[in-house]
Write a structure and sequence with these properties.
This protein has helices at residues 38-46, 53-71, 77-89, 96-111, 119-147, 170-183, 200-211, 224-229, 255-264, 296-299, and strands spanning 9-12, 17-21, 32-35, 152-155, 189-193, 216-219, 235-238, 242-243, 249-252, 269-272, 300-301, 304-305, 318-321, 328-331, 334-336. The chain is of the alpha/beta class. The strands form 4 sheets. Strands 6-5-4-7-10-14-15 form a 7-stranded mixed β-sheet, with helices on both faces. The longest helix has 29 residues, at 119-147. The structure holds 5-S-methyl-1-O-phosphono-5-thio-D-ribulose.
């Protein structure tokens, strides 16, 4: 059984609030922040205190519970909860897990609208969290079955315990491979892309892997082609924010470039995702909304300006990798082969 020392959330039974690890403070400060209201949840998602597609969905589900417990005795509670759902849906546009979780929670609210208490709504939020962890466990083992013999894996962004209900998707696969190797007295090595501009790789993934004693080396994003040419990358595994019906994958900006490089160097390229990341309502990746984030995140690093004042900036936070460049999508139900579809 694989495990991780890293956890993104904890439920505080005394305060009846979800506490989330502050991903803005990592890796220097490890602190949990209590989310008490729908506004706290919305701000945590928009401000990237919580990030990663499944994690956003889980936290938003608790947001619906907060709304339900606030308004449960109001005659127009459905309308009021729907209004909070709309607020939560406006936080970030690309990861489909957010909308999936909100729809599922509203379905639960409707089904239990006549209940005396909103306990069933809290139970559903916990189900979403538990199911995500179970899916990660399952997909991690499928991933290890698929590419368990690799020595060097490259990953991008953070698709780990911090980004999910636990273990992670890409980092779940990495944890499972590492555990199997360690059982044989071997070890896995992970190349961690720093992931400009938000530095999820540098700040979060390297911290998470080091916490679990998994051998890793940090590189800047522009170093991967060189390493591939040297034969130092055996496979690439990363996450997904939304997968279209034709298996095009939206993920962190830079994913598409890695897929092209992998294809050129004949390196297997995998995305790992729970079922909540699939969006069959979207035919191709061209229809996926790509979030544009603030110029500041490109121009400033840790408060220091690194480019001329007033320079023009673009900041698309995600890109779409066409399915023909993807060797496999590792899911809880096995590996899908998009380039053979
Ligand atoms: O902008 P972020 O940090 O929320 O982007 C995260 C990613 O792109 C992850 O790869 C994706 O959400 C999968 S997390 C299991």
């Amino acid at each position: 059984m694989i495990h991780s020392n890293v956890h993104a959330f904890q439920w505080n039974a005394d305060t009846q609030c979800l506490e989330v690890i502050d991903q803005l403070a990592l890796p220097d400060i490890e602190r949990f922040v209590s989310l008490k209201t729908v506004a706290d949840v919305a701000d945590a998602i928009t401000g990237m205190l919580v990030r990663g597609a499944p994690a956003i969905g889980i936290v938003a589900a608790y947001g619906i519970y907060y709304s339900a417990r606030k308004y449960w005795d109001e005659p127009n509670k459905l309308e009021l909860i729907q209004r909070d759902k709309n607020t939560l849906a406006e936080t970030r546009p690309t990861a489909v897990n957010l909308f999936w979780a909100l729809e599922r929670m509203m379905h639960c609210v409707n089904a239990h609208i006549a209940d005396r208490t909103p306990d069933a709504i809290l139970a559903e939020a916990k189900n979403i969290w538990d199911e995500d962890l179970a899916m990660n466990l399952a997909l991690s083992e499928h991933g290890a079955d698929e590419i368990g013999n690799v020595r060097n894996i490259l990953t991008h962004c953070n698709a780990g315990a911090l980004a999910t209900g636990g273990l992670g998707t890409a980092l779940g696969v990495i944890r499972a491979i590492d555990a199997r190797k360690k059982a044989k007295g071997e070890s896995l090595h992970v190349w961690v892309d720093e992931t400009r501009p938000y530095l999820q790789g540098a700040r979060l993934t390297s911290w998470e892997l080091m916490k679990d004693d998994i051998d890793c080396t940090l590189i800047t994003d522009n170093m991967s082609a060189y390493l591939m040419k040297q034969g130092l990358v055996d496979a690439i595994v990363l996450g997904a924010d939304r997968i279209a019906a034709n298996y095009d994958v939206a993920n962190k900006i830079g994913t598409y470039a890695l897929a092209i490089l992998a294809n050129y160097h004949h390196i297997p390229f995998y995305s790992a995702a729970p079922t909540s990341t699939f969006d069959p309502s979207i035919q191709t990746g061209n229809d996926i909304v790509i979030e544009e984030r603030s110029d500041r995140e490109v121009v400033f690093v840790k408060g220091n300006r690194i480019a001329p004042e007033n320079v023009k900036v673009r900041h698309p936070a995600f890109d779409v990798t066409p399915h023909e460049l993807i060797t496999g999508i590792i899911t809880p139900n096995g590996v899908i082969r998009p380039n053979q579809a």
